[in-house]
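Long-time lurker. I teach an intro course on protein structure, and each term I like to show students one example going from raw sequence to a predicted 3D structure in token notation. This year I'd like something fresh instead of my usual example. Would anyone be willing to generate the tokens for the chain below so I can use it in lecture? Attribution to the forum is fine with me.
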Amino acid sequence: YFPNQRLPWYLRAAMAICGAGLVCLLAVALWLEPSKKGFGTHVQLGLNPCSFTELFGIRCPSCGMTTSWAHTVRGQLVQAVKANSGGTLLALVSEVVGPWLVVSAALGRWWFGKPNEWMVVAVAALVVLVTLVDWGYRLSTL
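-- Reply from a regular --
Happy to contribute to a lecture. Here you go:
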């Protein structure tokens, strides 16, 4: 697509749904009170505690992600990184990508340019890598 070319309705709908989903997740994170333990914030949503932690007595790679989002939306980045650095990175990406998708869908064209497929893959891989490195660090300090 050229920068000012109108996007097809189905792409605009998918962008609006994904963008609104990310914005809603950020709003939920703002509503939640970050757990002082650094993980377990998700139980405020009526979800069970982490099964991995209960079974093995150690935190799983995603433990602390909801807590990191709750800290990130409040601008508490140090606490967010301590909870889960991969979750912090994911929340920061969502704070940019969510509104960008919603605005692009509303305009009917890519706002500030079309995404590069390799950039999307690289960011996703970086989030996974940071999450796994964070988990490895937490395991090494047990």
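Some talking points for your students: The chain has a mean pLDDT of 95. The radius of gyration is 17 Å.
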